[in-house]
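Write out the 3D structure for:
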Amino acid sequence: MQQGLDDELYNQVQSYVTNDAFTAREKLAIEFAEQFAIDHRMIDDAMFDRLKEHFSDQEILELTSTAAFCLGFGRAFQVLDIDVDFDVLWSREPAQD
């Protein structure tokens, strides 16, 4: 059984809010990860209430840990000036000049 995103769906993540290819659960996970990366201090009880509607406590822990792991490595790669094969532009993050 294949799990995760195929290339076509991965390339559509930036349009997750309006893209019906993503389930409600996937959209919420993407929203949480995006908020975690952009402004983690704004994640509030309302967000956790929404998460609890779709995810178990263990899944919320795993989602949070995965977001932290990926964000941390991404930032470490930037600090170390390690090149990547693609540019990442979060949907609400301003473009870098």
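Residues 28 and 47 are 9 Å apart (CA to CA).
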